[in-house]
Write a structure and sequence with these properties.
The structure is a homotetramer. Chain A is an all-alpha fold. Chain A contains nine helices and no strands. The longest helix of chain A has 21 residues, at 133-153. At the A-B interface, helix 4 and helix 6 of A face helix 4 and helix 6 of B. Bound molecules: calcium ion (4 copies). Chains A, B, C, D: GO terms for molecular function: phosphatidylglycerophosphatase activity.
């Protein structure tokens, strides 16, 4: 199922390298010798988790259904325009962020607000509905950063 | 939007009275003079919340899309058979339960396990996909029970 | 730190075997060949997680501080009598339950309501304040059960 | 109990006006005519919630116990130095943020990272342990901002 998740991310315009760039930006201040390959490994470990896979696949399915008009109203319009009070995207994202503990929440909120890297690109896309995808990418990046922090602090990396 | 939520619940086979029965069952041991109308009022207050409305509408939309084969694989099969490790339904449900604080979590888990009342009916339905709906109903009942507990303990009812 | 957690659990009256008994009770219906040693291994893996260790140590510290009168009012009395609306114990517990995804939430709520095994003993103790400990034990058991379900379903055990 | 919460916030160096400044900074870009009094009213409504009151009182009690050396090791040292992997402060904060739905999470993470206003002052204090307090203030501000957004979007303000 992990391959399916990577494939669907790519189909929606997200390369793992795009996420690794964000993770590197988040953590380089704390670990100046952080390698890009460590970021990619962390993302791979996050995408290994079943809970993460299901959240990503469900979110992308909702984005695509909204794009194709395949949802009943009023949820169709809500997802299509990413209505400000709609928080189900953040709910799914937090299920990912929580996998490595709550320290990932801080990065998630920061990324969601600052729209760094690919997150900004997704957010301003006019070709796709990315209501869920931008939050999912921010969540995968935050969980990966949390995993690196855990490994570094407990001496495993 | 609240009317739309009530309408979609009814269309999927859930009457507010069914939920009130569960709330009454949950709380009668603590408040022997609990009226059914108090349960219905609490449910109405819960359904007033935007976060609850969005969670319910999104979950029902996913159940219906799965029913109609309108989701990409592998998430389609996952939702159709309510795969044991799939937890996105619980994630949406917890967003409802948390509205009145974490005391609702206990009732939610209990209801989800014991499949009381309409929850059991939904769970064993062979005509509809109810992967999300059973958890949503358990969550609405738990949040309503939490609301009643808050009102009783703080002397508002 | 893991040894410290086990030591403090034991000091407060909880043996790992007590938790394993609960995990076994939860999962035997799904996996009839489930060994007690598998349950103990799962608990060990859960207690390896830093997030779990911190939640347990913080909760036990609050129970002990309440016992010794070492908290300011009104939180002292609130923790001492496990006030019905106090939900911080459930909040800490959910941080544990979420480590293996939201499927653990159902068992947690069930255990918290049914007070199975050592959870019931803790809940009715008159010698100790166990406001946090009963929920922490229910959470460790639920997370361990979720870990077993993940391993079984993905073919790792 | 609300008066006790306000009193303890003030005793630890946090005025409601400090929190209102943060809320105003967060929301002025979206609602240019936002009054400071609307921010103060929203904070007041947030502090009315029992779940919020308990989270704040518990967090402050832990900060004070750590300050006075009144916790067992190793949690004492962990809270005193605000160890990077310690996430119980974020857990308590999220219980507050979730009260008005998950849209508050984004602001919370942003505030926690950028240390805006009083949050920065608390974070760099050398006189007090503020491991919990900085996150609690960020959470109250985020929940208040979410409340304002709900009121504005649903036409209630
Ligand atoms: Ca979004
Ligand atoms: Ca379900
Ligand atoms: Ca308890
Ligand atoms: Ca902190």
């Amino acid at each position: 199922m992990k391959d399916k998740v990577k494939e669907q991310l790519r189909d929606r315009g997200v390369e793992l390298q795009d996420i690794a760039d964000i993770v590197h930006t988040l953590q380089i201040a704390y670990y100046p010798d952080l390698l890009m390959s460590t970021c990619l490994d962390a993302i791979d470990a996050v995408l290994e988790k079943r809970e993460v896979q299901y959240a990503v696949l469900t979110g992308i399915a909702l984005d695509m259904a909204a794009e194709q008009g395949n949802l009943p109203e009023p949820i169709l319009g809500t997802v299509q325009i990413d209505e400000p009070l709609y928080g189900v995207d953040e709910i799914l994202a937090m299920a990912i962020t929580n996998i490595y503990g709550t320290i990932g929440i801080t990065s998630f909120g920061y990324l969601d607000k600052m729209k760094i890297g690919i997150i900004g690109t997704l957010d301003s896309s006019k070709e796709q509905v990315n209501t869920f995808l931008d939050d999912l990418v921010a969540a995968i990046a935050s969980a990966s950063a949390a995993k690196i922090a855990h490994a570094k602090e407990t001496g495993l990396v």
